[in-house]
């Protein structure tokens, strides 16, 4: 994660805007390691584990969750 990512996260938090962390290309990681990676980001970002979503454009893992989250936040 670079400083631009952190700047954006800080801005969103300061303005009480919703954040969803999407871990892309999760299909490149062995399934047995996904939980550990998710835990790493929970600690690194100091956030709720339910806001860190493993996502794969190939298998569509996480797609439905991300769509539902965006719809809820935007209030379609």
Supply the number of helical segments. Answer: 3
**Judging from the principal axes of the Cα atoms, what is the shape?**
globular
- Spans of at least 5 consecutive residues whose pLDDT stays below 50 are none
The mean pLDDT is 93
Oligomer: single chain
Q: How large is the radius of gyration?
A: 13 Å
Sheet with the most strands, sense and barrel status? 2 strands, parallel
Distance between the termini: 31 Å
The number of E-state strands comes to 2
- As a percent range, the share of strand residues is 5-15%
Strand order of the largest sheet: 1-2
Give the % helix: 40-55%
> What is the H-and-E element order?
HEHEH
Report the structural category.
mainly alpha
